[in-house]
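User: Mind token order:
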Amino acid sequence: MHEIKEFTFPSSTGHNTIYARRCEPEGAPRGIVQIAHGIAEHIGRYEGFMEFLADNGFIAVGNDHLGHGKSVSDPEEYGFFDEKDGWSRVVDDMKALHDMIAGEYPELPYIFFGHSMGSFLTRTYIIKYPDDPALAVICGTGHQPIMQVAAGLAASEAAVKMYGPRKVGEKLNNIAFGEYNKSYDDVRTEYDWLSRDPGIVDGYIADPMCGFIPKVSLLRDMMRGLMFITDANNIAKMNKDMPVLFIAGWADPVGEYGKGVKRAFETFCSAGMQHVHIKLYPGARHELLNELNKEEVMDDIMRWINGKLQDKEQG
């Protein structure tokens, strides 16, 4: 077992403190992997993956985003980023963590791993900071049509205007996530779409830092983020030589059962990205790192990372 070190740093908001974790290998590190978690969860749920990365020689780091996990000092702040520009503030916090760790090891390759909402944040990051990461792994992502995202943005902006930014977005949350179980037989809980492993689902439900309903402003901020990453002009700003791996489950409703993931993959290819790869896992649902075949998934991630780093060394 590797030691998980906890630390904090000031948020870009100027009035929040961000909680973070890091896990280091026993020997000299070969690289750094920064993890961006999903909505209504926290970085503590990635401990097994962080230990796996450390076992393979990588420093693993990640933070609880604004309004999530231990970056929350007041329970009323769960599911709330900031009064305005919340999406940018979260990406800025990711940048601060990157600069902190990369500054310690400037010679090491830096890799981003983003899951679900974290995949959208990572896609935002590699548009804004194309020269930072050597590689990016995009997990459990989607790519909704621009008009659908625009409709979601209009609805969430109207809710913020009507109720204020800290209103719990129950109605919007139901619209966004309420249909995710509809394709499964013998549904046991409202979170069965996360994983086929009932222990994972039950653990998520029992975790007081998971499953909260986001505030209307967070949903607005996320819609703004989705608008940003689906804009072809922004996609074109990515580093064309950076290898990117898309992974998702065929039974993941967030990626529209593979369709949305393929659309994201195709937009990267159309933008001239030279090294884009995709793998979809039969039967797997949303949380690949918590699925029944999680060992296969992690081994595939490591095999891909090792191969791409070797290509860079030889190139």
